[in-house]
């Protein structure tokens, strides 16, 4: 029994709650995706107008095989193009624009390919808030969900939100039963989704067992690879497997911020089967491409991410403030590097360098500021 007098947390009153919610832009419910009316602007068009983003034009880039090849998806590519889904790892220090780039890429995937964009929701981060007015927030059904807004000033009381109040920030809140249900019923083409994993991992073991080619060591003292007591992040391995094996196979982009949280270099064969699940992700990577799942990863450093995953990634983005590599030995999985000098350490925020084994191209993106300094923290209970 605790001997500490914890007391009640100081929370914002109703008036302050209304004032904070008023800082957010109203949800956008007038677009083609929101109404089903094909004569309306698409979400992507509405986003571009809001952020004054010019229309996509592949001719703006010098090398077709770098950025256009990665972002324009096709089932039947030719020439320098690669068919199917793509991938990249954007790496850079905190505060160098990774989150803004992730929002920018989300808009481009909606615009170029009419994709189902899936942003990995996290209880500790909400960098997707610039796109909140268009967001379909996906939460597991049958579990308690708490939401709060926290100020940058830690002396300010937190704002506790109900699920209904979340509807004042995002376009829609939807519930899903399991990864297959999410993919087949909940996700929509041309729409931006923020998905929070099911901490009970319902359906995950069944999805794994239905793939006879994926067989890994079971963690000690239990009979299954996936278990309801596993870390909630492990849900993502089963979700990706469900998307690859059971569709639907519309173009889908998974935006995974801080990939090191899921597949760290330090992963081990622990009681949760963490190492085996990283192997599972590695082994499904080629099939993900084949079935139109693109995986766009963001992290602080390559060495934080497991080498199994780094070996599979065909494009890299070097964020500003850190020097780009100049030899292939600096990049796991690459046999060649075309850059022969360091340039990105002098780039301003908003400019980065994308490269693969054949070439490289600098690019810029528009700033997409959040309407408020408050951060949204959503926690899903077991």
Largest sheet: 10 strands, mixed
Order of helices and strands: HHHHEHEEEEHEHEHHEHEHEEEE
Question: What strand line-up does the widest sheet have?
Answer: 6-3-7-2-8-9-1-10-11-12
Give the number of DSSP strands. 13
Query: What is the number of helices?
Result: 11
What's this entry about, in short?
The chain is of the alpha/beta class and 382 residues long. The protein has helices spanning 14-21, 32-35, 43-50, 67-71, 98-113, 163-166, 179-186, 204-209, 235-246, 274-290, 307-310; strands at residues 87-91, 116-120, 136-140, 145-150, 159-161, 172-176, 191-195, 252-257, 293-299, 316-318, 351-355, 360-364, 375-380.
Task: Give your account of this protein's structure.
There is one protein chain. With 382 residues, the chain is an alpha/beta fold. It has a single domain, classed as P-loop containing nucleotide triphosphate hydrolases (Rossmann fold, 3-Layer(aba) Sandwich). It is 24% helix and 17% strand. The protein is built from eleven helices and 13 strands. A ten-stranded mixed beta sheet has the order 6-3-7-2-8-9-1-10-11-12, with helices on both faces. Strands 5-4-13 form a three-stranded antiparallel beta sheet. Helix 3 packs across helix 5 and helix 9 packs parallel to helix 10. The longest helix is centred in the last third of the chain and has 17 residues. The radius of gyration is 21 Å and the shape is globular. It starts with 13 loop residues before the first helix and ends with a strand. The relative contact order is 0.19. The model has no long low-confidence stretch (mean pLDDT 95).
